[in-house]
Amino acid sequence: MLELGGQTPPATDLIKDVSEADFMSEVVEASQTVPVIVDFWAPWCGPCKTLGPALEAAVTKAKGAVRMAKVNVDENQMIAGQLRVQSIPTVYAFWQGQPVDGFQGAVPPSEIDAFVERVVQAAGGDASGGLDDALAAAEEMLEQGAATDAAQTFAAILQEDAQNAAAYGGLVRAHISMDDLEQAEAILNGAPAEISQAPELEAAHAQLELARQAADAGPVGELQDKVEADPNDHQARFDLAQALNATGQTQEAVDQLLELFRRDREWNDAAAKQQLFTIFEALKPNDPIVLNGRRKLSSMIFA
């Protein structure tokens, strides 16, 4: 499990069947440190069969920021009477030993999610379970060159949230940094269909394509000499742009591609424009290289 200042409890700890014998410990005392949502239900209650699983899903998604106690009112009538449960389903949220929120009857999933979020915020928590902090930490590791540690953190996040596009993209980029391009491609290919078009994965795909190009890039110095000797040698200029990007000189690579586009925008099936788009997709949308490059390219396209 991912440790984010504390372990996320397993599902068996997050959601429990509670009786009169352990209500005090599992709800009242437990709510001193984490909010506890109590679902009062019965086997014969039709709406309960819909509400219960929806509540469990919302609580599980909160990753330990809230817990859930299920109370069968047929078997625990004394608790139901003490809390004045008059109809079911009835849901109460306990924080620091006291009911702080609740509702009666079946409600839509969106309202259940909002209820859980409200309960967590009332306790000063974060329903995302700290995954955003973990993502930020992994990104920082990657920027500092600790690609292996970053990959482990991204993988741990995916264990908690299998459709986290940012973690998938980060894991791909971490393997690219480790020069493990085959594994990076395998991770991309294994991403859930629901997030396959997410911007984070599109960016990772572009970075993988650039990394493969970098493996075949020629010496920058030789290519610069060829371009200087013949400014209309479009292939040499294109190869120079790839080599520059491979050595981290992204702005210089963009400049060469813009010059190539200016000289012959249709060369090699508009290869300069396509390569520019690939570089832009691999960078953050607000990167100055992207913003300035897109503006210059647009001005040439619509000139």
From TrEMBL:
Protein name as catalogued: Thioredoxin
A GO MF term: protein-disulfide reductase activity
PROSITE patterns, sorted: THIOREDOXIN_1, THIOREDOXIN_2
Transmembrane segments: none
Start and end residues of each Thioredoxin domain: 3-121
Record family assignment: Belongs to the thioredoxin family.
Pfam families noted in UniProt: Thioredoxin, TPR_19, TPR_20
GO cellular component: cytosol
Keyword vocabulary terms for this entry: Disulfide bond, Electron transport, Redox-active center, Transport
Stored InterPro entries: Thioredoxin-like_sf, Thioredoxin_CS, Thioredoxin_domain, TPR-like_helical_dom_sf
GO annotation (BP), single: response to stress
